[in-house]
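Troubleshooting log. The previous structure file for this entry was overwritten by mistake, so regenerating from the original sequence record. Sequence copied from the archived sheet and checked twice against the printout by T.R.
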Amino acid sequence: MKKHLLLPFAVVVMFLWIFPANAKTLDVATEYKDTVGQYIQVYQSNDSHLSIHDAIDAFRNGHFSLSDNPVINFGIGSKPVWLALQVSNSGKIAIHRNLLIENAWLDKIDVYYLQKNLLINSFHTGDHLLFAERPLNRRFFVAGHDFTQGETTILIRVESADAMVLPIYLLDNEKLNDRDRVHAYSYGFMYGVILALVAYNFMLYIGLRAAPYLLYSLYLLFFLALNAAYTGHGYQWLWSESPQWQQWASPVLMMACTVSGFAFALHFLAIKVAWPRVYRLIIVSCAGFSALILLAMLVDEFVLALLISIVFIFFFYIASVILGAISLRADNQFAKYFLLASIFSICGGTITANAVWGFIPFNWFTYRATDIGMMADAILLALALAERFNINQSEKLAAERMAGIDLLTNLNNRRSFYKFVQPIWAMSLRSKSNTSVIMLDIDHFKLLNDNYGHALGDRVLMQLSETLQKEARSGDILARWGGEEFLVFLPETRLTDAVAIAERMRKKIATIQIATDKEEKLSFTASLGVASTLDGNVSLDELISQADQQLYRAKKQGRNCVCSESSG
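Regenerated output below.
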């Protein structure tokens, strides 16, 4: 909101002063791509209600000191600060420049432009105002001004309970738009990736009803909301009518993000089962930190709530690394992903926190380190959940396969036989091709069990199944039909060829020798019945019944032989 304060008494108050000798002046005609903190003079008074007139007197009397850092930083809970920047224009044409404070969480910002002893322009912005009341529709704080010939002094008052980090730029419209475009692309990419992971894991939760997928989606959503809060995207697009929520969004969403992150970690690593005491400790800690944050909100202590939230989130980082390490030592196959993801998160969060608190230089990388760490965290945990899904699916398929397999012979049981044969049978009916079935039975198998025991009988069944698998063709389907009966399905096979295959199997079975407990060599034989689809109207069960009838004939004819309709 732009205001021209050309009041009659301004001339009286704004009299000529002598600029401090150590002042640096910015040339408005020069392009400054980086921050201009080293050109700015700083004054922080014990009087938090210092007026513009008092600030001008302090500047005139040399109480402002030149900043040594490109980015001015006063940390969390700082008192209001006054900044002074001198700008010169040696030309006759006014040049438009934008004063950009690239920080989205400052409470109050007052910008005053003074020239020739007069206050010529002012802007008032900050999160205490509705977003629509900002001078420009941007998530960062921008004040545009036309600098005319001569020297202009910019006085800036900044007040914020949150971290007072002031990356200040003086840019033309093109450079300002370029910065916005780069930010838009980078945040758009990050938000797109994380939202895709949220949708993917939520769909997995709907399909599998597994809690870790839902908790991971909530964790990512709360992180996105937290990121939107401290980057200004939330105030610009989501809650632009609520400056009070904009103030409290960061500590509240930090609490929500941390609690959801702990909930995911505890379920994902199965901490409740493996380490119940650790599980209870984490639950109690989450409840305690959350209660402290809510209490600070109730008594309207924003700085205290913010500090507790920061401690809570770093407690989460450290606890995650510890949980990942102990889970890895306990041979949790997913812990390696979780531990690596936690390390990326704690490194990114530590870098950003130290940059915001002023311990390390504040720049694009240090400010976005949390985003970079979280992207790595999200991708690694998504890989872990994907691997978990694949393992679960493999185990499910293996269980289904085991349900269709005869455990002794490792051949299909009846259920599995029909599952594999039905589509082949339907295709053979459509193409009117010949299909054959061999039914075989071990001769005198009951006597083998009675005379030598069931253990040897099991060995006979296993040896027979191995022989059938070797003699069968690649497209044939074998099954243990029950007891000592076996079935071989032969697609695309005429009766004469099926009889030849059955005869080869019979001869091979007769050569099998099994050693008894007394080191005797025991042989056995089998009877086989063969049937084929000579009649196109026959069903699969009817074909199997015909093969069973031929097997009965083979047994009546003396066993150890092959019978079919052609041998009738």
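The CA atoms of residues 33 and 171 lie 7 Å apart. Archived copy saved in two places this time.
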